[in-house]
Write a structure and sequence with these properties.
It is a single chain. This protein is an alpha/beta fold. It contains 15 helices and 15 strands. An eight-stranded mixed sheet has the order 7-8-9-10-11-12-13-14. Strands 6-5-4-3-2-1-15 form a seven-stranded mixed sheet, with helices on one face. It is globular, with a radius of gyration of 21 Å.
């Protein structure tokens, strides 16, 4: 079983292969932000196709988009666009996905594709989202420019999710099998997908969070007011409460794929699915740290109750991820060590990117090496030897 985390800048792009009867079973989880398809994902797929020339096109059993943020979905959009271009040009597809696991915002809300954008009536209303999404915009942007830019970001996010659903239908890739229902954790009957000898158990998003989102959306549509508060809630719910979370199991091997979910919600889903042991922590092989190692998503309870042999933080320092506070939190929860932390970019690069990104940003604290630098933590771990560190593209064999 091979787990890879490709260098995807500030996003996620994971490629997993496991033994199958006639060929490897392949899973692609997220595709990173703009440019990652060309620089990382496309090259990896070409390398895989070269290893298996008998597969024309290369088979990918599962493509999963954890949620609609651009740092997860854009590379997958590029891939499906390439597939459609090949069909239109009557050339060989670069790959053949079997399943697409993907919740668009419209499916989460319970609307038909494009329903949210129609109800919000375009940029004028969407500009009120600046309170939620304005963090990180350059400080010298005037108020009007910030609102226009924010509206574009939101419209793009909605449009990207709907476009992927449309592309999947156009190239005849089955979405959310077996019945295209919204993917969420069902407490009475957890959803389990079979992949050869492996299983994918859906443990998030939680049904109650999706139900709450739908109720708030319905209430807003009935009143057609208080758009700013709705916008702020959507911005919180879509990447965090609504991330698809999956436990992949193959024999005794376990990988927890978390998207940008919150640690407490992940624990609730694992417990509700009967996956948490009665005593002691859940022991897994690989944990993809939620939200690129952001301290906003990772909690002491989460690290105490889920123990991994390998922790993977995919981020280059943009938005401060992975956070130094998260690395220190993990160490406090598991001071005995004996595990490996993988960073998709080296600590020095992450710190330099964090410093550059934070400079002059609206509502973002200036980079403070004493508070924010992850390099001293990584160097100390190496000296002490209790916690192993690997930097760069991640490759783990189980």
């Amino acid at each position: 079983m091979e787990f890879e985390a490709l260098q995807a800048r500030y996003g996620d792009c994971l490629f997993i292969t496991l033994p199958g009867r006639d060929r490897p079973i392949r899973l692609l989880i997220d595709g990173g932000p703009a440019g990652v398809f060309r620089t990382s994902l496309e090259r990896r797929l070409i390398a895989e196709a070269t290893k298996f020339p008998q597969e024309k096109p290369l088979n990918i059993d599962v493509v999963m988009v954890s949620h609609v943020d651009e740092d997860h979905i854009l590379g997958i959009l590029d891939l499906f666009g390439k597939i459609q271009d090949a069909d239109l040009g009557r050339t060989l597809r670069p790959c053949q996905p079997k399943w697409l696991l993907h919740n668009s915002l419209d499916s989460l809300i319970g609307e038909g594709e494009g329903g949210v954008a129609r109800a919000l009536s375009g940029p004028t209303v969407l500009a009120s989202l600046d309170a939620a999404l304005g963090v990180g915009l350059p400080a010298d942007d005037d108020e009007g420019a910030m609102k226009d830019r924010t509206a574009r970001l939101v419209l793009q996010s909605y449009g990207q999710a709907s476009k992927l659903a449309t592309l999947a239908a156009a190239v005849e890739v089955s979405r959310n099998p077996p019945d295209q229902r919204t993917i969420m954790f069902e407490p009475t009957q957890p959803r389990v997908l079979q992949l050869g000898d492996a299983t994918l158990t859906i443990v998030g998003p939680l049904r109650q969070d999706v139900d709450r989102l739908r109720k708030e959306w319905s209430a807003w549509k009935a009143k057609q007011k208080d758009t700013a508060s709705l916008a702020a809630d959507l911005d919180t719910s879509i990447p965090n409460l609504s991330s698809i979370v999956v436990l992949l199991q193959w024999g005794q091997r376990k990988i927890l794929l978390t998207g940008d979910a919150l640690g407490d919600q992940i624990l609730e889903g694992l417990g509700g699915a009967g996956l948490m042991p009665d005593q002691g922590p859940l022991k897994i092989d690989i944990l993809k740290l939620p939200h690129h190692g952001s301290i906003r998503n990772n909690t002491p309870d989460f690290f105490r109750k889920v123990h991994a042999e390998h922790y993977v933080a995919s981020g280059d320092g943009t938005y401060g991820n992975p956070d130094r506070a998260t690395l220190e939190l993990l160490e406090r929860a598991r001071p005995e060590g004996g595990y490996t932390v993988h960073l998709t970019y080296d600590a020095v690069t992450c710190d330099a990117t964090h410093k550059s990104w934070a400079a002059g940003r609206r509502n973002v604290p200036l980079y403070d090496p004493a508070r924010d630098s992850i390099t001293p933590v990584v160097e100390r771990w190496r000296r002490e030897g209790r916690i192993q560190v690997e930097e760069g593209s991640v490759g783990i064999s189980l």
